[in-house]
Amino acid sequence: MSPYRTITSNEEPEKLRQEQEKIEHYKLEMSNLKALSSMNEALGKINEFDSSLNLNNSRDRFEDANGAINDRYRKENAYSELSENHSEKLAQ
């Protein structure tokens, strides 16, 4: 006696449908895995881009530099005003 059971003609369409459902399920899983892989790759690139720019640190450095420039401008103006001879201005 064979270890395999023979499929009757009445069971063939049902067996075929089950096999087709399995194949469709595997296709769907493969599609989902590909989509996840693509998303992970994209997120990795975004993370690299964000890390390389490090926008927060760049903004902080810019604000520090801008503050230093403004401080120096105010000091230069103050020195300029202090060094002017006010009596010459009054004479004009």
Q: How much helical structure, as a percent, in the residues?
A: over 70%
Oligomer: single chain
Q: Low-confidence stretches at least 5 residues in length (pLDDT < 50)?
A: none
Find the count of extended strands (DSSP E, 2+ residues): 0
Sheet with the most strands, sense and barrel status = none
Please report the distance between the alpha carbons of the first and last residues.
127 Å
- H/E series, N to C? HHH
Provide a descriptive summary of the structure in words.
The protein is mostly helical and 92 residues long. The chain has 3 helices and no strands. The protein has helices at residues 12-53, 55-83, 86-91. The radius of gyration is 39 Å and the shape is rod-shaped. The relative contact order is 0.04.
Write the layout of secondary structure elements.
Elements: H1 12-53, H2 55-83, H3 86-91
Short description:
With 92 residues, this protein is mainly alpha-helical. The chain has three helices and no strands.
Task: Name its key features.
92 residues, mainly alpha, rod-shaped
